[in-house]
Amino acid sequence: MIRDENTNRADFIFYSNRINRLLVEEALNHLPVLPHTITTPVGRSYAGVKFEGKICGVSIMRAGEAMEQALRECCRSVRIGKILIQRDEETSQPKLFYDKLPEDIKERWVLLLDPMLATGGSALMAVDVLRSRGVPEEHICFLNLIASPEGAANFAQKFPKVRIVTAFVDQGLNEKNYIVPGLGDFGDRFYTL
């Protein structure tokens, strides 16, 4: 549904949100836990697990903001940071314009949100921003709907400790570095079309 150019905006949003929720839930499964025992309402002990730290979502604006709702549905009162990186249409190189992150981000596990991983340029720059603020590479999990093999390889080469959780790995990139078969411009389809 989200790949079909004839899917209307309402359906695109609905199905994207469903996938985003699954991605967030899967990413949360990769965070560290500690043993934790509780007492059930019938007076019995239950040995389970409990998350070991604090989480923070960081969306790469604007398309990454579409993934924030799914994160909030799974983690009430989660802190959300923002990074604005745009790809130069001529050079395909990313450029950082803005970032606003929680002051204690270096003490958090970061879920980096951006629905598309094409060349990896924007996401790599976002990880550089996070690392410059003291976030350890192994405390970052990058969530996206569609990844290109080239982008995933670039990411793994530069940041091998960052975990990537994706829904689809597509065929590759075209001559303009767009993911194929892809789904078009995610942000345009989610917010404006």
From TrEMBL:
Documented EC number(s): 2.4.2.9
Identify the metabolic or biological route this protein is part of: Pyrimidine metabolism; UMP biosynthesis via salvage pathway; UMP from uracil: step 1/1
Q: What GO molecular functions are on record for this protein?
A: GTP binding; uracil phosphoribosyltransferase activity
Q: Which GO terms describe its biological process?
A: pyrimidine-containing compound salvage
Required co-factors: Mg(2+)
Per UniProt, residues of the Phosphoribosyltransferase domain are 2-191
For this UniProt record, the keywords arranged alphabetically read as follows: Allosteric enzyme, Glycosyltransferase, GTP-binding, Nucleotide-binding, Transferase
Task: Using the UniProt record, name the top-level EC class of this enzyme in a single word.
Answer: transferase
Entry's Gene3D superfamilies?
3.40.50.2020
Q: Which family does it belong to?
A: Belongs to the UPRTase family.
The name this protein goes by in its record: uracil phosphoribosyltransferase
Q: Which gene encodes it?
A: FUR1
